[in-house]
């Protein structure tokens, strides 16, 4: 039985190969993680911080209006979805003449987000189509504008099957 002796050079080469493999796998996983999910909610946190006070003021103004805005999303058989928004003022009267826009946002991947154009289908009733919506969790973001100023904003988590 002839076996080769374990030398210091062999041990050194095994250690270098082991740690080289571990470091290589770690670098590969890190690159893949950064490329798929950068971890940022906004492109510029500084700019978002500057607009924070305006967002608080807009939310207070929206609450003071006491509007009742109901958004509903329904899945169609062809894989798309219909978004319907019904807007009423504090007295329960339909609100006409607003410009509503919607977005379906993936909570985990901003690259899958897309806009839904809503048009006024009746007095206080706005509808839009979203073609080929993948199943899963989405954030339905509804924004309403009047005379170029945002007067309504809501974000709701929905699950589409």
Automatic annotation (TrEMBL):
InterPro entries: FixH, FixH_proteobacterial. The keyword Transmembrane applies. Keywords: Membrane, Transmembrane, Transmembrane helix. It holds the Pfam family FixH. The chain crosses the membrane at residues 12-34. This is Nitrogen fixation protein FixH. It comes from Bradyrhizobium ottawaense. The lineage of its organism: Bacteria, Pseudomonadati, Pseudomonadota, Alphaproteobacteria, Hyphomicrobiales.
């Amino acid at each position: 039985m002839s076996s080769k002796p374990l030398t210091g050079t062999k041990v050194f080469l095994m250690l270098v190969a082991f740690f080289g493999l571990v470091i290589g796998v770690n670098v590969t996983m890190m690159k893949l993680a950064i490329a798929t999910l950068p971890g940022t909610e906004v492109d510029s946190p500084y700019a978002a911080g500057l607009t924070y006070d305006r967002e608080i003021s807009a939310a207070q103004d929206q609450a003071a209006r006491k509007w009742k805005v109901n958004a509903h999303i329904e899945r169609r058989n062809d894989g798309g979805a219909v978004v319907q928004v019904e807007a009423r003022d504090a007295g329960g009267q339909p609100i006409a003449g607003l410009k509503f826009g919607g977005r379906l946002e993936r909570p985990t991947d901003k690259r899958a987000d897309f806009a839904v154009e809503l048009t006024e289908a009746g007095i206080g009733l706005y509808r839009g189509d979203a073609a080929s919506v993948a199943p899963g969790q989405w954030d339905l973001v509804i924004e309403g504008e009047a005379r170029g100023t945002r007067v309504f904003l809501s974000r709701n988590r929905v699950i589409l099957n």
